Amino acid sequence: MTRIMSQEQFAASGRGRFRDAQSGPPKSAKFYKLPADAGRKLLAAELATGLFEGESVVVWVKARGIWESCENLCLCGLVRTALGETREIDDAPIHLFGPPDSEQATAVLAMCLYFFWDVAVAGDRGGLGLFFSHDEWFAAFGGDAERVGLANSVFDARGFEPE
Q: Residue ranges of the domains in the chain?
């Protein structure tokens, strides 16, 4: 099940368990450089969504338009139309994917990374959130130190450089 929502719809849906997507990383988080290479961005998206295997996952576009020359709203619209959404990204920036839709979650996250958008990712189990910045860094954070440590070890093992 994929559902795309406005912030108001998200708040009204009672999905507070995705609280890790509602904040950013603390200064104590381990920050990584987001690679310029499109293939490495796709890998980052695959690893990120893979951390939430078996969970519903939210991909929340927090800010866009910072580097307008890097985004393609037509492509974004085509991707969202394929998911059944007709509203503009600014009107409905929250993408909720059920466990069987992890490839779609990866595709939307990769698109956000290609376009240099600020995007938060979290699962419904809680304790882990990821934030990807238009300033080309990302970080794992949350209240579950074991999950955050696992996320960092996954990115370390695949050669992502600390910021």
A: 2-9+31-154
